[in-house]
Design brief:
With 502 residues, the chain is α+β, with helices and mostly antiparallel strands. The chain has 15 helices and 24 strands.
């Protein structure tokens, strides 16, 4: 019997991961390749869309070669994407008019402040989002207003805009399929989350023409087929598209309201399934669409941390005090505590629950006795503290007693971080056997899109626990650590916006 496979492609902030899964939903192989991070000015972050297109194909080929599989043995492809990262391109030439503006990019911070003042409540009610430079809307407007010739191209009907799912599916299909899914559209700050369509009033307010935006579809269906002339010489069904964080929620089989997962990547993102209801947050979380299946959307609460894995990269590449991320576990364990050092990695501001675009990274509590190990440990602890603040906000918003958190992403291999996370949360932290749950979620949705699963119940049975971390500190110690963390955060806030008189 000839085996058939499913591809799950995770196009992430620092690179693209491809998983190949067999008919038993076991991982057969893995392909990963990084792409360049472009920093033209302080606070500006860009990606080269052509490089991402090429690297996505390379990632897939690496996975195929590792398993010695011909792509014609693959039944379908599912894709997840970075979310808010967005670009505009010329549909006649197939070339971007400018680099993709990454979700971390802060060039529109001042415009976001002004829009929030004028229309923040209205946008929050319509989109479930807090007005911020993080989302796609003001990035699209910046390109329209600042890149020469783009407005003219829009008037001629030559320009398209989209998040990276839209771009990659358009490229894969040879320009035949121009779509996004409801979960990704909900990251743009242009989608009316309750109506499930682009909001005409917001578009008019920002002077973004509706016709440059893609059609919105459910997250799982056959959108179209890859064009053999441009995509690995194969016609393959593209049967899933979803934003990365809720792809991980799906890959973690968090299908019931109240289930929570946290993904540790470049940033760190926590989602709670809220079922078929939009839960409005009173604690500065986002109300989002988790995924769309058929004519129904599943909603979620989300809290994001901008800098987590990127802080470890900074220890390696910026400070050059570590050689690789893996060694941080033993370095952190080499000291009994953080030595009073707290690190708030607000390199590009703070997201939930603060939404402070002007906060900046800060390390405090340094003394003559502070060592490299204390700095490394404080960096790992800073990740866990930020996650704990988001979980606390979710408890308050939902009224649900969260008794376990499922986790995934590269950092879950760090035993010190996972144990400290359980300690600070005061609940168990569950690591599944398969931790690449973002690409896994895209693959599951692709399988669902071609009828490989009859229901979500079939997928749920695939989730298997790899390791559980349970809290090992008491409530008093936990509160002391969190209290000091909150003091550190307050000292990092509004740094870039302060006016100092001399």
């Amino acid at each position: 019997m000839v085996k058939k496979y499913i591809l799950g492609v995770d196009q992430g902030t620092t690179g693209t991961t491809t998983l190949i899964l067999d008919e038993d939903w076991e991982i057969v192989s893995h392909g990963y390749i990084e792409h360049e991070q472009i920093y033209p000015k302080p606070g500006w972050v860009e990606h080269n869309p052509i490089e991402i297109w090429d690297k996505t194909k390379q990632s897939i080929q690496l996975a195929l070669d590792a398993a010695n599989i011909d792509i014609r043995e693959v039944k379908a492809l599912g894709l997840d994407n970075q979310g808010e990262t967005v670009l505009l391109w010329n549909k006649l030439t197939g070339l971007p008019v400018y680099n993709a503006l990454v979700w971390q990019d802060k060039r529109t911070a001042e415009q976001a402040d002004q829009l929030k003042e004028e229309w923040g409540d209205e946008i929050r009610n319509k989109t479930g989002l807090i007005v911020d430079a993080y989302f796609s809307a003001l990035k699209i407007k910046w390109v329209l207003d600042n890149v020469k010739g783009v407005r003219e191209g829009v008037e001629k009907g030559e320009i398209l805009a989209g998040t990276l799912d839209t771009w990659l599916i358009w490229k894969m299909s040879g320009g035949k399929v121009y779509i996004t899914d409801s979960s990704t559209a909900a990251r743009t700050m242009l989608l009316n989350i309750r109506q499930g369509d682009w909001d005409e009033e917001i578009l008019k307010k920002l002077d973004i023409p509706r016709y440059i935006l893609p059609d919105i579809h459910p997250s799982s269906k056959i959108f179209g087929y890859t064009d053999p002339a441009v995509f690995l010489d194969c016609e393959l069904p593209i049967s899933a598209s979803i934003v990365d964080q809720t792809a991980a929620l799906f890959g973690q089989a968090c299908f019931e309201p109240g289930m929570v997962k946290t993904t540790y990547g470049t940033g760190c993102f926590m989602e709670m399934n809220t079922g078929d209801k939009v839960v409005s947050s009173k604690n500065n979380l986002l109300s989002i669409i988790a995924w769309g299946l058929g004519d129904r959307n599943t909603y979620a609460l989300e809290g994001g941390v901008y800098i987590t894995g990127a802080a470890i990269q900074w220890l390696r590449d910026g400070l050059q005090i570590i050689e690789n991320a893996a060694e941080t576990e033993q370095i952190a364990l080499s000291v009994p505590d953080n030595g009073g050092v707290y690190f708030v990695p607000a390199f590009v501001g703070l997201a939930a629950p603060y939404w402070d675009q002007y906060a900046r990274g800060m390390m405090i509590g340094i003394t003559g006795g502070t060592t490299r190990a204390h700095i490394v440990r404080a960096t790992l602890e800073g990740i866990a503290f930020q996650v704990a603040e988001i979980l606390d906000a979710m408890r308050k918003d939902s009224g649900i007693a969260i008794d376990v958190m499922r986790v995934d992403g590269g950092a879950v291999a760090n035993k010190f971080l996972m144990q400290f996370q359980a300690d600070i949360l005061g609940i168990p932290v569950d690591v599944p056997e398969i931790t690449e749950t973002t690409a896994l979620g895209a693959a599951y949705l692709a399988g669902l899109g071609i009828g490989e699963f009859e229901s979500l119940e079939d997928i749920k049975h695939n989730w298997r626990l790899g390791r559980r971390y349970t809290p090992k500190i008491g409530a008093d110690e936990r509160e002391k650590l969190c209290f000091n963390w909150r003091k550190a955060v307050e000292r990092s806030r509004n740094w870039e916006n302060e006016i100092v008189s001399v």
